[in-house]
Known about the structure:
Distance between the termini: 69 Å
CATH superfamily of the largest domain: Phosphorylase Kinase, domain 1
Structural class: alpha+beta
Number of domains: 4
Mean pLDDT: 78
CATH topology of the largest domain: Phosphorylase Kinase, domain 1
Radius of gyration: 36 Å
Strand content: 5-15%
Number of helices: 22
Low-confidence stretches: 513-527, 529-536, 539-546
Amino acid sequence: MSHLPRLIKVxxxxxxxxxxxxxxxxxxxxxxxxxxxIYAIPWSIAxxxxxxxxxxxxxxxxxxxxxxxxxxQFLSTRRDFIDSxxxxxxxxxxxxxxxxxxxxxxxxxxxxIHQPATSIFSELDSTPLASASVAQIHAAKLKxxxxxxxxxxxxxxxxxxxxxLKLLNWAARLIETHLSIGKRLRAIKVINDYKNIILDxxxxxxxxxxxxxxxxxxxxxxxxxxxxxxxxxxxxxIMVMERIYGIPISDISTLEKNNINLKLLAETGVEIFFTQxxxxxxxxxDMHPGNIFVAKDKPEQPQYIAIDCAIIGSLNDxxxxxxxxxxxxxxxxxxxxxxxxxxxxxxxxxxxxxxxFESAIRSVCEPIFEKPLKDISFGQLLxxxxxxxxxxxxxxxPSLVLLQKTLLNVEGLGRQLxxxxxxxxxxxxxxxxxxxxxxxxLTLLSRVQENIPDWIEQLxxxxxxxxxxxxxxxxxxxxxxxxxxxxxxxxxxxxxxxVRARNSGVAALLAGALMxxxxxxxLVSSLPILSVLLAVLGVYLLCFKR
Length: 546
């Protein structure tokens, strides 16, 4: 078990920080709690860590490394799910991870760029500006005068991530093999998708490409600014980009001091998310507070600044359409349409009883919609719908996992900025406008025009395609005719075999009767050779002649 050392490490850290205190004493959690307490016995000799259990959880995540830090970052934005004090503690994971000091930033730059740092930079701060789970950032100034930051991957982090991924794959296989919910969760597929995501974070050249594309998508936008990348100094382990100055999105007091319109800021964040998903089909999928800033100079028309574009999500046309239709149907409480869409897009089996599924969705949604919309957590609603659809064998959709996570992040950030944020009121007009645009005749005509060049390119191949289709149809007809003949031959053979079997039985009965009937039996015994010949002749006639 190659993952065993890492498993032991995880258990050791959990015991060291007494994380069993987060587990209740009921149901299945009680067994895990008991095991962790037993495992923690050796640690009882050492002086106890007197920090709060929230602080101990943060320290444990920091010690366990990037995958656990990423999970903590996500939890810190979900104040509707976890205690606010725990959220405050986990928020420190955003940029307070202890930095590394060896090798130095100058040594790393020269190793990957093959030029001395002094030949490129007039200033280079050896003390990190920020230190995160996978990389850290240093401030610098180019000799041409531009202020930049240098992002470098933590040395040796690949080994830690590889060990964690092996452990997660092992746990996923256990879940799928031994738990009834395992196949529906598609844990192995989800872990494999997450593996691609976390490995992408280790490739800064890919992040630079993502950043450049996102910057292009919002070129000239008043809603979102993305910093410039300096491609001459980008490699897989190092990236140089424009330095930005903004207020961290989590620093509410500073935002208020700068008279930032928090209500508009929260609503703009929602609009940016839906613009990325539905207009660009290219969205920043790691929107935790450490990656989002606000420009200081536009208080009444607040502008976001996004960094760390390592994790990017995208949807194909079919996913976009089904997602938009589902959200619109939920907004309008059209539960039958929600049920039908789940079946149409394959999220639940085709044999699902639509009426029962609709009724189950209604029973979940109606009590929630009785509240004012601003008090409804979209994240909570998604969780409830997931549990309900799970009763109808809905499988987790790995292609939408990133999107769901990002939507939860967006809602968490928005509610943190403006507790009365009505996500529904902000999202509904956008979705309706997008859907109307999609069905607009001019949009449909534009799509046709986009496809015309491809159709023209295929015109010379059209006669061959027609001939191939006709040939294939003829071949299929011949194959079908041959199969019919073979089936007829098999049917005849089966009929003959049944006749032979019946006749064999008749022959056996006649032979038995012949031997048992005394007069004939005495005759046969007196003429043995003749009787054998007659018996053989009779069997032949009965069994092999129709």
